[in-house]
Amino acid sequence: MKKRTCIILAGGSSERLGCDKGLMDLAGKPLIQHVYDRVKGYVDEVLVVVSSAEQRKRYSRLFPPSVKVLMDFSDGGCPLIGALTGFMEADGVHSVLLPCDTPFISGDVIELLFEATFNVNASIPRWPNGYIEPLQAVYRTRPALKAAEIAFKNGERRMQSMISRLRRVRYISTIVLREFDPHLLSLFNVNTPLDLRRAERIIGATRGREPSHGARSDP
User: Fold this and answer.
1) In the chain, N or C terminus with fewer CB closer than 10 Å?
2) 80/206 Cα distance (integer angstroms)
3) pTM attached to this predicted model
4) How many domains does the chain have?
5) In Å, how far are 48, 59, 116, 181, 207 from 32, measured between CA atoms?
6) Residue 17 within any structural domain of the chain
7) Crossing angle of helices 79-89 and 141-153, rounded to 10°
8) Which residues have a Cβ under 8 Å from the Cβ of 218 and sit 6 or more positions away?
């Protein structure tokens, strides 16, 4: 069994952007490619979850054969179904769940979340107002799979329905995350054309600097 899996959710539609979000161009490459490039050095396998056969064809062309592109096992188009699909196929003891629209996810933040899952079933970022980021979190794969299955069978489709069934969850304050990612760009999502322009400006401002997404060093 592998140690770490990354599950990238790419099945959601984007009415505000008017296109398949993950395939949208950002600085010369698809948005999802930015996520993949930043996370691949920290995990042992990458799974991409989409919602249709047509999406599966399009996304499969982007990645090497080692990346599995999965189609949601059930209709619904919600993150819980995507997460459950990924957990079903994940070989890693732990799985980091990410959306396809977070181009600046920090390797340091990913590493922190993986390490924080020691002796618990999930490590989830939480803002000071109590809002959590369940789609940018690390889960112990088997307990998360079981919790997601129960939620789904009960007709519940919110990620919180899965999380509430996990016995031990560690919440990581965004104040702590700022020590590794001062501007919390890891939690920045591209949801609107304005977000896309901001992302392009960020890339333009940082181009030429040393990237912050190198591979992990195993002890």
Assistant:
1) C
2) 34
3) 0.90
4) 1
5) 9, 9, 25, 20, 19
6) yes
7) 130
8) none
Domain-located, residue 121: yes
- Tallying the residues shown for the chain, one arrives at 219
pLDDT digit string, tens, across residues 80-113: 999 999 999 999 999 999 999 999 999 999 999 9
Q: Dig out the tokens for 71 from the structure.
A: 């189609």
The DSSP result for 42-105, as a single string, is G-SEEEEEESSHHHHHHHHTTS-TTSEEEE-SSSS--HHHHHHHHHHH--SSEEEEEETT-TT-
Q: Is residue 14 part of a domain?
A: yes
At 4-61, the pLDDT tens digits run 999 999 986 555 555 788 999 999 999 999 999 999 999 999 999 999 999 999 999 9
- Is position 117 within any domain? yes
Residue range 178-189, pLDDT digits in tens:
999 999 999 999
Quote the domain boundaries for residue 46: 4-206
Q: List residues bridging with 30 in a β-sheet.
A: 25
Q: How far is CA 6 from the centre of its chain?
A: 7
Mean pLDDT, rounded, for 166-181:
96
* CA dihedral over 169, 173, 177, 179, signed as positive or negative: negative
> Confidence class of residue 212 from pLDDT cuts 50, 70 and 90?
very low
Enumerate residues 6+ apart whose C-beta is below 8 A from 20: 13, 14, 55, 58
Residue 102 belongs to a domain with what CATH number? 3.90.550.10
